[in-house]
Amino acid sequence: MNRAIGSELAGMRLAFWGYTNRLDACATLDLARQLRRCEDALSGRANINRFFYEMPVAVDGRVAQAVRDVGGPSHCDGGWDALAAALPAVGRGFEAIICTSVDRISRSASRFFLREQLASAHDVALLTADESTLELCFAPVSDVATFCRAVRCTSG
Fold this sequence. Notes:
Blueprint: E1 3-4, E2 13-19, H1 26-42, E3 47-54, H2 61-69, H3 80-86, E4 96-99, H4 102-105, H5 109-121, E5 125-129, E6 136-138, H6 141-150
Parallel strand pairs: 2-3, 2-4, 4-5
Antiparallel strand pairs: 1-6, 5-6
């Protein structure tokens, strides 16, 4: 079961992770919605100061501006590769990664576990803003395995 967290967030610095597989004009709205959901779940208890996200098209300055224009992150620090490269850095600027739900990390079980292990190896927690209650929760690996079976994730 996910563990709701509260006071341990005080002053924590977070990295936002967003992902959309949309190619249409709604892709920018989807990323902005994901950020707002995470901010709502935090209720001011922690600060998101790094912003990483991916979509099927390259995120260049024009795409980042379009996301920003609809209320998305103020800037884009890169995609998953940039986030992974930041994990071992001494001055990475965050202690945890927040996303709207575990399927934003990856819908592939094997890719999710690799990403979760990488974050864990660098003492970085993965947090999700539970979509039904907007309650911030840690996502234990057992819950993720159950989730992945439910959506029939494939390895790879």
